[in-house]
UniProtKB/TrEMBL annotation:
Subunit structure as annotated in this protein's UniProt entry: Monomer.
Lineage per the UniProt record: Bacteria, Pseudomonadati, Bacteroidota, Bacteroidia, Bacteroidales
UniProt organism field: Segatella buccae ATCC 33574
GO terms classed as biological process: proteolysis
Necessary cofactors: Co(2+); Zn(2+); Mn(2+); Fe(2+)
Catalyzed chemical reaction(s): Release of N-terminal amino acids, preferentially methionine, from peptides and arylamides
Name of the protein: Methionine aminopeptidase
Metal-binding listed as a keyword: yes
Length: 288
């Protein structure tokens, strides 16, 4: 089926066709969704995103060093804000479409966009996702990690956290040059279903680097050969949200900001995320 009759890939005027041009134009002629040239980052832009990724990783490392039973999630926000200040970076979440904090802290059944607050005190056995996006010199990097508070939880939660990380890794393996976004989602969903888990459909990964959210939408479910063509130079996140039960979610009615997403059956959820650049040989992680 034709994706869009309007041509998206435009060759540089007066320049001979490159191998990249030929490959993208081939798939576009087959009716596939292809990126615009603007989504292909230059080497200089990739290095800028990589530098932002170093700060992002350092921030999450600092959270890992300090997180403990009895701390509240506002303290996590304070750690991230202070780390950004010390490294001349900006937390992208702060004031983004009304979001009031610098980081997202999502505990147990909160899937994502959990708002840090003093009332949310971490208990032993909680699982918490800390999702950080940094801006350094205008470049964005986005990553999240799961933490098991106190280092030990139930076998069921421990398995969920592990499988969610495996889903990210499997999605990264499926992301090959000139494959499709749907290949990523197909691989992730197939692995999650082995455990009876649901993959959230209402939220997805995304292009990133020069802005917080760019094309393409990177869904974590789907069919092979669908979605946008993945081309070397594209930068995007993979961030599967894996629910212990149903994939369905709702927005917490008690959240005055309208951000916190919760599993419909209120069973736990887990998520891991990296910012990745597509190369000629597969993806390279920019947020290790």
């Amino acid at each position: 089926m034709m994706f869009n009759k309007k041509k998206r890939w435009h060759c540089l005027p007066g320049q001979p066709l490159t191998e990249l041009d030929k490959k993208v134009m081939y798939w576009e002629s087959k009716g596939k969704e292809v990126p615009t040239r603007q989504l292909i980052k230059t080497p200089e832009q990739i290095e800028g995103i990589r530098r932002s990724g170093v700060v992002n990783t350092g921030c999450l490392d600092e959270v890992a060093r300090q997180i403990h039973v009895g701390m509240n999630t506002q303290e996590i926000d304070d750690i991230c804000m202070q780390y950004c200040k010390e490294h001349h970076a900006i937390p992208a979440c702060l004031n983004y479409e009304g979001y009031p904090k610098s980081v997202c802290t999502s505990i147990n059944e909160v899937v994502c966009h959990g708002i840090p607050k003093k009332e949310d005190v971490l208990q032993e056995g909680d699982i918490v996702n800390v999702d950080m996006t940094t801006i350094l010199d205008g470049y964005y990097a986005d990553a999240s990690r799961m933490f098991i508070v106190g280092g030990k939880t139930t076998p069921e939660k421990e398995q969920l956290v592990r499988v969610a990380k495996e889903c990210l890794e499997i999605g990264m393996e499926a992301a090959q040059p000139y494959s499709f976004v749907g290949d990523i989602g197909h691989a992730i969903e197939k692995h999650a279903k082995k455990y009876g888990y649901g993959i959230v459909r209402d939220l997805c990964g995304h292009g990133v680097g020069l802005d917080f959210h760019e094309e393409p939408d990177v869904t974590h479910y789907g069919r092979k050969g669908t979605g946008m063509l993945l081309v070397p130079g594209m930068v995007f996140t993979i961030e599967p949200m894996v629910n212990m039960g149903t994939w369905r979610v709702f927005i917490d009615a008690d959240d005055p900001f309208g951000w916190e997403v919760i599993t419909e059956d209120e069973k736990p959820s887990a998520q891991w995320e990296h910012t990745l650049v597509m190369t000629e040989h597969g993806v390279e992680v920019l947020t290790y």
